[in-house]
Amino acid sequence: VTDAPQAPPPTSAPSATRAALRALTAALGPSKVATGDARLPWSRDDSPYPSPLPDAVVHAASEDDVQTTIRLANEYSIPVVPRAGGTGRTGAALPLYGGIILATDSLSGIEEISKEDLTAVVRPGVVLADLHAACTEMGLFYPPDPSSLGTCMLGGNVATNAGGPRAFLYGSTRSWLLGVDVITGGGERLVLGGKTRKRSSGYELSQLFAGSEGTLGVATRITLKLLPKPPETLTVAVWCRSDPGAAAVAAAILAARFSPASLEFLDERTVDVVRGGLAVPEGGRALLIAEFDGEGVEVIAERLGNLLTGLPDVCVVHAAVDPARREALWGVRRALSLATRRVTRHKISEDVVVPRGSAGALLDDVARIGETHRVRHLTYGHAGDGNLHVNFLWNDDDEKPRIDAALDALFRATLARGGSLSGEHGIGIAKVPWFAAEHSATSRALQTAHKAAWDPKGILNPGKWVGGDRNHRDC
Ligand code: LAC
Ligand code: ZN
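# lactic acid complex -> structure
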């Protein structure tokens, strides 16, 4: 494989942009094309990265609107950045070269939930919590549960291959994606996969599309696999005496052949940050949250109780089956991102992942990196998966070079342990500079060739990790 030819990022010359916006407004109607101050919220997402404003925001209400927008963008050579809920953590939906934000939040609605097929067909603008609620009402279950579930949308979940605590047992969004209708970067309509639970028929392009972060096409309809809702769920919060103690308890739970759906961890530094909003028991310094799905969870509770009682690292255990009490145990965990924002002026929250047996070693790496670079840090996340949210916190701008050095050391330590830059948030803008450290030249050339096949003029989401030799450092 040689490096595939790369289209340069489209130039959005002011005259081309003005002509494109006129054509878009004529084709879609003025109510769907926002310009002026209405663009202001669209240069931010849930990441800390700066971005220019888009030239316009197209609010697509149908597949035709998406196709029309992409075709016109090709004609006038202007960038298009697809965006659903805007809750991304890595800046993947930011318009680095201006152009059009193609917003699919109004392309909404659950089209069908089938008990017989155990499938859901949704539009990209459906909020994840609304899908969860609709499934629950029918006795069904869609497992992926990123913390932003109250506002994130399925289009973005597919685009980033979003995870969440339940990924430990059930896998991330990609594992639940059966099919997707796409308008490609070239403006073609592409129907991938469908409602069968298995498929072994040629390249599974829907799986390639998952995690493609708006660089290949725009999803207009998404088909997801469901399960029957587990009859009961048990949530257990285990207060441990130290970080290594929590790691030992997590290992003991798995060694005793429990199979939790989630196995979450808050390190001592994180507990210190949320202490105000938590009843922290005497001696409790790090927290594990484990959740178990199934029938007869009281048997699990009893067996787990016996195990935990005998472990010296365990301080106090709270267990809940009742949904409201379970949600209370999860509340603190889901609010962590906001809680940490309150204790610092700036933070970077990463989502590195290592083989799960190396999570403890990565925590040691983080402690060493924090010390070497004199950087405040805390870590929480999906310990069961080896997917840790390592946060670096700082207040003064002159600390930033040390933060950058710590970040670089974190990514290199992760890769040295056979890990990946991202377990669930994606590459976005955040990790472009390290992409080549994880992916070989051959792999990058193949990814670029895919991108060129789906998006020949390179109009989709330029400046990200594929399809152009420029990145945000050039902006
Ligand atoms: C979480 C998000 C940040 O796990 O991934 O809270
Ligand atoms: Zn997470």
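# post-check
Residues 24 and 30 are 8 Å apart (CA to CA).
Residues 1-6, 469-475 have pLDDT under 50 and may be disordered.
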